[in-house]
Amino acid sequence: LAKTTQPISMDSYEGQEVNITCSHNNIATNDYITWYQQFPSQGPRFIIQGYKTKVTNEVASLFIPADRKSSTLSLPRVSLSDTAVYYCLVGRSNDYKLSFGAGTTVTVRA
Amino acid sequence: NAGVTQTPKFRVLKTGQSMTLLCAQDMNHEYMYWYRQDPGMGLRLIHYSVGEGTTAKGEVPDGYNVSRLKKQNFLLGLESAAPSQTSVYFCASSSGLAGVETQYFGPGTRLLVL
Lengths: 110, 114
Known about the structure:
A: 6-stranded mixed β-sheet; B: mainly beta; 4-stranded antiparallel β-sheet; 0% helix
């Protein structure tokens, strides 16, 4: 399964856009990309999922280029409450195999 | 609707002791998972289950056993705890394969093995 690599940390300010890129060079045809958010002392929570091109929901956008070797989670106009760890997950659609990235700690400052 | 709950929240064990972590979900999900989370390593899948009475090994199954006697419960056992098993353990459930279906995670169990 594709090894997922993401930056360890990112700093931002309130109102800015935050973009987190995950690298998954060996992604397979059957693999999907999912992003989770985790606050301290809580379990991860689903943010967004995609296969290719762009997906947008009420909290984030996910950009996936044509070669699918990377993906970028975009958080528009972040607030202090967006301070969390964000995980990239590459998972297979036809078996249990999955690979979580090590997580990116996003710190939003006032 | 409690979602996914885990018991206990925190535990300290001595090397060689045994314990069972309990996970319960009230969403009628078929799939359940146990992960461990270690600093700098993300989440790694220990065992998973695709339905009542079924279990299977994940990425890091050694030293752990699981059981799924009831659809809503998934138990993780450590027969002889080792310091290397010090970690935060998360249970999750989903309606389908974790790669394509949303996983719902519990709050985690912090385990310290001395």
